[in-house]
């Protein structure tokens, strides 16, 4: 739909935008402006004159349009791990007499690690209860302080029903945090409609913000002013440049800002978000389902050894398709070697992300052809493909 | 000493490198490589093939050479606020039965705000005791769990004696955290020699890493393996890509990494750090004292209304000189209007940073001339200079 807006390497079928989106062609011009015209020429004055100080909120508002967030309710900054910590600390404050945080085994590990770290730091006898994704609904009881889930499972693409689970949680007085890492830019999200208290996510996947692009955090407007931030940094202060001794949180969700914003990463992200100006997320979703359905059909017909790990029903699947295979790692290395880039997730999952901004049916059919050849001719069965790299 | 390595705007005397260092000329080429050759062409493979994953440690080691840190004991990432939180949480864990964190009123507000937030989150009756800088030494008693100081005062440039205070703290079993925001790249620092447990700092001041450049954290090698990180993110895990349920910290200081590193900011920072390859920090210090002494002498001779706010003894002063004046804000606006960029810090301080990498005696004399004219002719006394901008 916008393939011409991205730099994509030749002879490559890129199906890993769910890990790292490709380079928007306009990023370079935007970067140049930030580097030369702003930093180079304005120096310190860039914070005012180039609007650097407002970028976290301004880009938040832009992103908010994609996620159904009211203006002013979402800011960019830090990493997703930090934003999970912030959101969970705030959520626990809202339900001080309950001691259980409910999550599921489909959550991304860092979300659970950050929760572990926070609960240990709090040292008040909290429990992080991790159940199977399908058991979440039956585990939502009035014992649960916070329900903390990633909407789309990073391994399987299984997608939770955000509205249903949020409602179930609210029915028993549980606060809800959604991690939208694999949702933002991939599926329609309406935070306002969901009524969930918090959302967090990253911007380097389907939003194409580049390696290490900043994360985001949303808090529902009616609760934002009640939050006492655990990470009470100066840029979440109501008057950072008064340099007062006492911390007084800024109005609303702006208090979830912490330290100095990463202006150069934000410049790249701005170029990436501009691409969405005339794109409808509903059209993206329609196309994503077409591409995913086509890929499943083609692969299942041709590669009988691969077992679908994603939900078959597209309405419960994000914008990725995963298969399991014992030698999944080697298969993915063989694919990459032939220019089809997806990725591998331990222990045995190969996954393919579909980003209709730049992926089309040719990509799907091309990838299926190459995968078929690798499976049929056991091309994966070579030592060079079986040897694990340190980082995958 | 390296003026040719920086892009500096014409007709500008830049004395605000203690807020934001200028653009290194090589940043653009380095950025281009990261954007096109790495992100653009390697896409997700950049994490391995371009060495992105190792950048926080690799640049930490490079920075460590300037700060007397053993290799592997310092990593880049997040913001200084976050790093303060991490260090303080770890330090408090090391002295669980003491309840007082000692700091001083010369500490940067966000350090104190983050400490407030952490202590409130812990909810174990800790006190953050903030005394005058000169009273720190007499307040170090066996009641103090953690001594947390910024070495160089952001307003006055007053510099603590790191070795002396660390020793005094260790004598009574107190853990020590140094914030090196205004030290790194400005004055010689030797963390190993100081024997302090932790140091944190930012890289956009005298290190010229650009707006929003990542922060750093050091932990002393013999204690690093004992730290249980409060911010237990996946990139501080010993095997991030195993996606295990349980958090197991990485070896040593690498556990202080949290989330996905900001690769584009790190690329710029790398170009900035390369400039230091053949620069001696002792030479920088000698030159910095020459420039500061010259500035004080010239200003005091010509501008009798300005009162020196910095220590007169250069051995207790960082690389900045501050003066107080009731209408300091207006004076700084008038200076900026004439191309002399320093900055203002509430309520009445004008400050000038000296970075011998690109500042020389011509800058000092030029700035003194313009300042003299502004003061003598009361050029500051105009409404346009008195009106405060939202951010200064």
What structural class do the secondary elements of chain A suggest? alpha/beta
Largest sheet of chain A: 7 strands, mixed
- What share of residues of chain A is helical? 25-40%
Q: Whole-number radius of gyration of chain A?
A: 22 Å
Order of helices and strands of chain A: EEEHHHEHEHEHEHEHEEHHHEEHEEEHH
Average pLDDT taken over every residue of chain A: 96
**Beta fraction of chain A:** 5-15%
Q: What CATH first level of the largest domain in chain A would be assigned?
A: Alpha Beta
What characteristic shape of chain A results from the CA principal axes?
A: globular
Assembly form of the protein = homodimer
Biggest interface, chains and residue tallies: A-B, 93 and 93 residues
Number of helices of chain A: 14
Q: pLDDT below 50 for ≥5 consecutive residues: which ranges of chain A? A: none
Number of domains of chain A: 2
End-to-end CA span of chain A: 29 Å
* Name given to the CATH homologous superfamily of the largest domain in chain A: Type I PLP-dependent aspartate aminotransferase-like (Major domain)
Examine the coordinates and then state which fold CATH places here, giving the name of the CATH topology of the largest domain in chain A.
Aspartate Aminotransferase, domain 2
* Total DSSP E strands of chain A: 15
Spatial order of the strands forming the largest sheet of chain A: 4-10-9-8-7-5-6
